[in-house]
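Box 4.2: Ligand-aware structure prediction
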Amino acid sequence: MSIFDLLKQDHRKVESLLDEIIDHPTAHQKQQKLFQTFCKEIKAHNQGEDATFYEALKQHKKIKDIILKADEEHHAAETIIEQLEKDDLPAEKWNAKIKVLRDMILNHVKSEEKEIFSLAKKYLEKDDLKSIQEQFQNEKENYM
Ligand SMILES: [Fe+2]
Ligand SMILES: [Fe+2]
């Protein structure tokens, strides 16, 4: 699988976990279990992406700003995730907050798959993409 396929595979997984969490607003235990899986997946994905894919793209001055923005989107999502992890919010508020998180993540993923993927195809060599793919898998495994 190419790095693009691997990233897309993670994106679909994270999206479907978020859908499932949002579909179970009253089943606290089930929701929390799904949320834990979601946290593990998204953190490993973001860590892998930052350390390999974004790191390589950031080396190109012309697109550095776009990558720094995407990086900030990771941080913004992580801040909301931390608030949700504390699980000290009233259920209504928790459920509202995770919907905001889903919107943020859907937007982020859309710009990655539409804009950043095509920049990567333009700016990175085939060999680079291959080594990024291997590094990404290692990074994720180490994190999990
Ligand atoms: Fe991603
Ligand atoms: Fe990302």
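In the box above, the bound molecule is fe (ii) ion. The chain has one domain: 3-143.
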